[in-house]
Amino acid sequence: MSNDSWLSDSERRRLSKQRNDGAIVAALAFTGLVASFMMTLVTPLLPELPHLLGVSQTDSMWVVTATLLAAAVATPIGGRLGDLYGKRRMMLVLLGSLILGSVIAAFSSTLIPLVIGRALQGAGLGVIALGISILRDVLHRDRLGKAIALVSATLGIGGAVGLPVSALISQFLDWHMLFWVSGTLGVVGFILVFTLVPVSTLRSAGTFDFIGAIGFAVGLVGILLSVSKGSTWGWTSPLTLGIGLGGVAVLILWTLFELRTESPLIDIRVAMRRSVLLTNLASVTVGFAFFATAVALPMLLESPTDTGVGFGQSMLIASLCLMPSGLVMWALSSTAARVTDRRGARTSLLIGIAVITIGYALAIGLMTEVWHTVLVATLVGFGVGFAYAAMPTLIMAAVPASETAASNGLNSVMRTLGSTAASAVIGVILSVNIVTVNGVTTPSTFGFQLSFALCAGAALIGLVLTLLLPRRQPRYDTASLPVQS
């Protein structure tokens, strides 16, 4: 529903000003980079966190887990609130959460305040889905593809490019400086969105589904907790099984509730459309394959050379080796958009997942030189860039314009689910398959090869799912995007 009756007098005056589309895209891309940077912000600190906080290694991992859970829950809920009450407004709220979380973390010296701060930072990841939806509202169709590809790719670019920055700060400055930097970047993003992004005139009718939001959050957190903590708690322990199965049960009940709700958090009938469902399932496999580079490759690069497996590099050097992954996503975003415009989003997704598969297939045999890891990371970045550029287009071609942000948010959750699974599964594989030489223990060559083979297998599943996507999208009258022929 496009209706300026939602707007205040000041908002109407802002809309009357001439827009600079390039500035809007730049502002949304910058906020996407800042939000995705939060996901790898503390990675260089992980080995030192138990000592810095005076806690066990297991407890210190809540600093990462809380961020992941908050991002997964806040993204679709923030998207639905954006559809109802204004996407720009919700972007500012989520950026405010990121800034507040950064300040709390910057003043933290114990675990609980730091976990709270990191959870608030994680909620900021929802700005990427909202940003993509804003692009759909404000840009001309001819400019939309490149802009969506760029903003969508920031989910990978920010983490890959920001990791060396985090490593540099962690190595030479007080660790609290990480959060002052992230807070400053959040303030810049807030100012850019407030001054450059127009207010939202396209909003949904209806009310916010509080019960659905609570049910979705409880069910999703249960599943993600069991996956991320299964290796620590024990995969067959009552706690892991209880939380995981409980989460599944809650989501089943939530689905039944959403089908009966007049204004649901997520329209299940739309989510079950063939294009939406298959794209979301393929997103799980891409998220799995992409996040594995952040788990396996740094460990390979940083493992001591004594066992003949690792390369003995520092965290900073390892981060620089992975940085081309993010740079190639940025460089190829316009190319991916052109392919999507000319051949369709399905083709772009096929190309992306095929390149990811090739990259991991090569990784199984290329493990003896540092440049091998750079090559693999770059190929995976190439593939993920194409895949991330295609997914929002596939989603928006099949969902109503009034549900753009919520549907993009759900797609982001599916990527997160894949990433969480990758972190847990690859972590278990590398911790079980080890080799010890002269008292030095590292993951074995077989452990790394098995991890890469698993990622290639996940990508192959994604390839099959993509092949099952219809070559021509069904023409939905209310779709967010015109259907490409």
From TrEMBL:
Segments traversing the membrane: 21-41, 61-79, 91-112, 118-135, 147-169, 175-196, 208-227, 239-257, 277-301, 313-337, 349-368, 374-399, 420-440, 446-469
Superkingdom as given in the UniProt entry: Bacteria
Location(s), subcellular: Cell membrane
Membrane topology: Multi-pass membrane protein
Chief location: membrane
Gene3D superfamilies in the record: MFS general substrate transporter like domains
Pfam families: MFS_1
Alphabetized UniProt keyword annotations: Membrane, Transmembrane, Transmembrane helix
Ranges of residues in domain Major facilitator superfamily (MFS) profile: 24-474
PANTHER family in UniProt: BLL0718 PROTEIN, MAJOR FACILITATOR SUPERFAMILY MULTIDRUG TRANSPORTER MFSC
Descriptive protein name: MFS transporter
